[in-house]
Structures are given as structure tokens and as C-alpha cells.
């Protein structure tokens, strides 16, 4: 009997070892053999627009176009021909004079967006007073209105209120309005 139990135990151990080794081989073989990946595609070229492109004509009739996207190396075109990067230094003064104009345009658009955002926040707050969610505009400590939620002073609003405000103010699923009295 003891011999039978010993053989049974050895058989079970052998079986477990065999299963474990097959499992390990299966796991190893199911892993990719290579660590190589495709090289990431370069970012698509930014579309030229009013905020990143400026054109001018020199006194001699030469047309210049400067395209400045973020902190990338600027692209300069002279009479519609691109200037190689190694030759941009020759046009440093021109680039230095045109870049601040692009910055002014970008700042003006940012100020306009901020003003539009503030007007929308005020309209939402005025509607909240009209709907008696708050007593006065000064009663709003914070609010968040998005496609997923409406929270006023830390309290989630009813579905009916949420639906009414999203229908009126949220034009896309990624749009949200937030206000925090402490950050103003």
C-alpha cells in the first residue's frame, strides 16, 4: 500500500511537471519572436493658416512666405521656392521681424476665445439663476457642464436640468464649460 501511494505521488508530480513544462513552452512560443516595430510615421504637415503663415513683398517685388508652426524650424519661401534650412540664417532679420506679427495674431485669437468662454460662462450662470439652481451669480463657487455631467457647487444636477443645459450649450461631445470662483 505504501509503495502504491509513493508511486501515485510520483506519478502526480511527474504529471504536474510535464504540464508545467508544456505550459511554459506554449507561453514562450506564443510570444512574438522579434522586438522590432514599425518606425512611427512622422506627424502630418500642419496646414498653413492665418495663425502660422505670413506673406510679404519686399521693395524689389520679391515675395516672402514664412510658416512657423510651434517650436519647429520655420519654413521660408522666396518667390514660392523653399529656402533650405541651412540657408535660413541669411534671412534671420526678416524672420525676426515677421515672427512677432504671427505671435500678435495668436494672442489676439486667444484673447477672443477667452472672451467668448467668459460670455458663455456668464450665460450659463444667468440661466442657473433664472432656473433657481442658485440665488445670485455670486452663489456659484464652481460648475462643470459637459456632454456627460452637470455639477453646480459640487452637486450633480438632475437629468432634466443636465439635458436642458447640454442641449443649449454643448455643441460637441468634447466641449465642456468649467468655472471655479477661486481660480478667477
The helix fraction, in percent, is: 40-55%
Quaternary structure state of the chains depicted: single chain
Spans of at least 5 consecutive residues whose pLDDT stays below 50 are 1-6, 8-27
Order of helices and strands: HEEEEHEEEHE
What is the end-to-end distance?
85 Å
Number of strands: 8
Overall pLDDT confidence? 84
The main sheet orders its strands as 1-2-3-4
Radius of gyration: 33 Å
Which overall shape is indicated by the principal axes computed on the Cα atoms?
Answer: flat
Number of helices: 3
* Main sheet record: 4 strands, antiparallel
Q: Could you say which structural class the secondary elements and strand pairing correspond to?
A: alpha+beta
Q: What portion of the residues fall into strands of 2 or more residues? A: 15-25%
Describe what this molecule looks like in 3D.
This protein has a four-stranded antiparallel beta sheet with strand order 1-2-3-4, with helices on one face. Among the domains are: 53-107, no CATH class; 131-183, no CATH class. It is flat. With 184 residues, it is α+β, with helices and mostly antiparallel strands. Strand 6 and strand 7 (155-156) form a beta hairpin. The termini are far apart. Helix content is 43%, strand content 17%. The chain has helices at 2-30, 92-130, 159-169; strands at residues 53-57, 63-67, 75-78, 81-82, 142-146, 150-152, 155-156, 176-180.
